[in-house]
Specification:
Largest sheet: 5 strands, mixed
Number of strands: 5
CATH class of the largest domain: Alpha Beta
Radius of gyration: 15 Å
CATH topology of the largest domain: Ubiquitin-like (UB roll)
Strand order of the largest sheet: 2-1-5-3-4
Structural class: alpha+beta
Mean pLDDT: 97
Distance between the termini: 41 Å
CATH superfamily of the largest domain: Beta-grasp domain
Strand content: 5-15%
Bound molecules: FE2/S2 (inorganic) cluster
Length: 151
């Protein structure tokens, strides 16, 4: 049995310890905001927070989350009460296809928590998530906008 806190709620689940955390989140628990992209730890579409740090959940065995705190994009906000990052994302019209964007937002939130006023270079250095639609300019603009609101 693996037990952890998911978006502030306790979860206990009887799965193989090696099952990727992403599979547990999407298939066992049914939260589909976190996406499966490469499955190899490269693209970041599957980014969630483990104890506040961004991790590639496709490449992390669920056993790593045992007795830890996990947050997914569903924890950030919703249409009525978006997180400042999500509000900036909407105002900057960041997404194109949208597939990478929940992972991008989780990476952006983690960055702003460790560095409230990142430069473009710091954004580029700390977020290695891939957007095949090339929305990087708008991502940087949205992170700077959210930085001003949060700061
Ligand atoms: S799906 Fe996890 S890094 Fe690409
Ligand atoms: S918006 Fe399409 S992959 Fe990023």
């Amino acid at each position: 049995m693996i037990s952890f806190e998911l978006n502030g709620e306790p979860v206990s689940i009887d799965v193989e310890a090696e099952m990727p955390l992403l599979w547990v989140i999407r298939e066992e628990i049914g939260l589909r905001g976190t996406k499966f992209g490469c499955g190899m730890g490269l693209c970041g579409a599957c980014t969630v927070h483990l104890n506040g740090q961004p991790v590639r959940s496709c490449s992390l065995p669920v056993s790593a989350a045992d007795n830890q705190q996990v947050s997914t994009v569903e924890s950030l906000g919703d249409e009525d009460n978006p997180h400042p990052v999500q509000r900036a994302w909407i105002e900057q019209q960041v997404p194109q296809c949208g597939y990478c964007q929940s992972g991008m937002q989780m990476a952006a939130v983690a960055l702003l928590e460790s560095n409230p006023s990142p430069t473009n270079a710091e954004i580029d250095n700390s977020i290695s998530n891939i957007c095949r639609c090339g929305t990087y300019d708008r991502i940087r603009a949205a992170i700077r906008q959210a930085s001003e609101e949060i700061g």
